[in-house]
Amino acid sequence: MAIPEKQLDTWTALGSVKQSAATYNTIKAVLEDKNAPYSGQDFKVFLQGSYGNDTNVYADSDVDIVIRLDEVYYSDLDNLTEPAKASYEKARVPGPYDLSHFKPDVFKWLQSPKNYGAAAKDGKKAIFVAGNGTRRDADVLVCAGLRRWWKESNGVDNNYAEGICFFLPDGTRVENFPEQHAANCTTKHQNTGDMFKPVVRIYKNMRNRMIDDGVIKAGLAPSYYIEGMLWNVPDDEFKTATWGDAIVKTLNWILKANNDKLLCANEMFYLTRPNSHHCWPTANFDAYIAAAAEYWKAWE
Question: Among 29, 246, 279, 293, which is 20 to 30 Å from 67 by CA?
Fold first, then answer.
């Protein structure tokens, strides 16, 4: 039997809103403090992830906060012609202050005794700030602006998409486009009669229950990719009278889709690919969606 409508309705609810907002505002104030060692630089602090996109559920813990250095930008030139690349390189002026300076300064500031001390720990991707009684755990992603130039560009015009990037410890650059992701998910929500985000929360809650029940392992289906997966589903598949019908229709569409052609919600990367820092590993996607279909049918 399928999951009861009453349970699905419960799973549509937003998770902690007040505490996550308070956490963001508190850490944002620390990051923007005029006494921070990077305070003279051009940067922006904003919220991303489930809390930023209104798809958070009660089991979500970390609040994802971005601090983006705008003093300089990094470039993705893969689409440019060789003449355009040459024009870009000729006009390029390296900035004196970049991510190699910015991230250590941000970490030093967060870890200072007046702020979070030992509660701030540097990680592979982000700086983790442990929560306390009034503050949730938070991940602070220190990044810089990114420009992905389109193939029509001559290398010195404004024909590019703006994103963010950061570097892993081994020097690998990771790119993302959170503003496009958020905007596209909001448009999807509106086009589906405000059904998209509650359906995402149902899928996330079901994923969490599958982990608790030992059906799948934690980390197999990150929330970011679940949002992207559902963003590909046609709008009409969400427009149903019940949550159960919405799950059946969206799940059936995904099961029949060619996952090689699915896109991330930001439309900048394919959703599934093996061995990519920007895509859902194909094997993980396949394992998750097969398990979700079986879990739906086997619910008791």
Answer: 279
- Average pLDDT of the chain is 93
Structure token digits, residue 250? 């969206």
Residues 6+ apart with CB under 8 A from 47: 24, 63, 64, 65, 66
Separation of alpha carbons 259 and 270, rounded Å:
9
3-state secondary structure of 273: coil
Report if pTM > 0.85.
yes
Please report, for residues 64, 131, 207, the alpha-carbon distance to residue 17 in angstroms, rounded to integers and kept in the order given: 13, 15, 21
Which tokens hold the place of 300? 């008791």
Closest CA to 257 of 267, 265, 249, 269: 249
* Phi, psi values for residue 126, rounded to 5°: -135, 170
Cα distance between residue 82 and residue 294, in whole Å: 50
Residue 184 CA to residue 227 CA, distance in Å, equals 11
